[in-house]
Specification:
single chain, 167 residues, alpha+beta, 3 helices, 7 strands, 26% helix, 37% strand
């Protein structure tokens, strides 16, 4: 598995709340920091309102890659259905992410999806120092992302099901 293959991972959870209620939690781009061991927080770029083309900053920390900050651009924005973004360069992103909300009876299936690459990132820098281990490094990275994504969707589920509204 190579970064050039743009590998993906996905998690999902069923939330006992309608999509519109779950949606409000997704627009708090700082929220995943409550659950993730890597994402340290973020916020909308000054003067930016959530919407297509909006930008937000994120801060991350990883024991191997160190600390870094990125700017992401919203590439998909359909209220109560889709929130997607590209990290750094929209045309050649370091990663792409999305949340999807699918109505399910009186609840919602919340999915989070991520794609590594194709653009440069800390991961490509690390692989560049030991290219013979790219397959193992990419597989390990996908596992780390999946673990944090699962914690995030489960955290959003717990918040949405309390009946407390975001904001």
């Amino acid at each position: 598995m190579k970064v050039s293959d743009c590998p993906t991972t996905e998690v999902e959870v069923r939330v006992a709340a309608p999509p519109a209620e779950v949606w409000s939690w997704l627009l708090d781009v700082d929220l995943p920091a409550r659950f993730s061991t890597e994402f340290q927080g973020g916020g909308w770029v000054e003067g930016t309102e959530p919407g297509l083309g909006a930008r937000f900053r994120g801060r991350n920390s990883h024991p191997v890659a160190g600390e870094w900050e990125t700017v992401s651009t919203v590439t998909g924005y359909e209220p109560a259905r889709l929130f997607a973004w590209a990290v750094m360069d929209v045309t050649n992103p370091a990663a792409s992410w999305r949340f999807e909300l699918v109505p399910d009876g009186d609840g919602t299936v919340l999915r989070q999806w991520a794609q590594i690459g194709p653009g440069p990132s800390n991961l490509t820098r690390i692989i560049g120092s030991m290219p013979e281990h790219e397959d193992e490094i990419v597989a390990m990275r996908l596992g780390e992302l999946r673990d944090n994504m699962q914690k995030t969707v489960e955290g959003i589920k717990a918040l949405a099901e309390t009946g407390v509204h975001a904001g």
